[in-house]
Amino acid sequence: MYKKILLITIFVTLFSGCNNYNRVNQLFQTQRAVSISQDYKDILNLVIKYKNKLDKRNPKHYNKDFKSAIYKQIELIEKNITLKDTNNYRLVNYKQYLDLAFNKKGIKYRNDYLILGLYYMIYDAYSLEKMHKFTAFNYDNDKLTKLYKNLYILRWKIRTAKDINGNYLFLTWQNNWQIEYMNKKINDLNDIRKLNSIISKQENLMSHSNFSFEIILSMMINRVESTLRNIGTEPSDIAIDTITSLVFLI
Hints:
Layout (H helix, E strand, L loop, with lengths): L1 H56 L9 H10 L17 H8 L8 H16 L15 H20 L15 H9 L4 H4 L3 H4 L12 H19 L9 H5 L6
């Protein structure tokens, strides 16, 4: 009789313990999912901030008629804007957008291809068409790892990519005097000192480069790192020689 009671007690205790463990684990995973949702919301806010800075810095390279629609799409986490390539075919994935953004030939509205490519890359990695995820297990490790690597590649390409004439595709890190210098194609040092941004003393020839664009992309990378840790993956930094040898992953 006593043995029977003891066995029942042990069974109930073990069953109750399993239930408690499952509840705690489920709560833990739900909390992680909440943290991940904050990660992608932060990233999307950074995309909006980046677009704003990029358009101000490169005002001839975005479609003013699409401006508010792109902002609205990102804010509402939608995916309804589709651009076309140079052959008038509709683009179907973020890599096509990014490939056009970095096309060395003359591409009209290059900023829009870059921003939409970046946004759709994030949208796909976080599967934002299915936003209601209650545990961290619902996120795709492979897609998020690709996003992590792609952001490293993107940060490097924006800084270094040039067109067929040797001009930078995107003005980001350059100071105002450097932009004037490139536009006027000045060779004489005395003429450099006559540039408007130097004469007005807004800058000097020793002024530091503008790292604000890279900082925004670095913050995006940081949020993806947070997400990867929450789904059980430890991300690692990517060496520059690795970045330069890679193309965008899809």
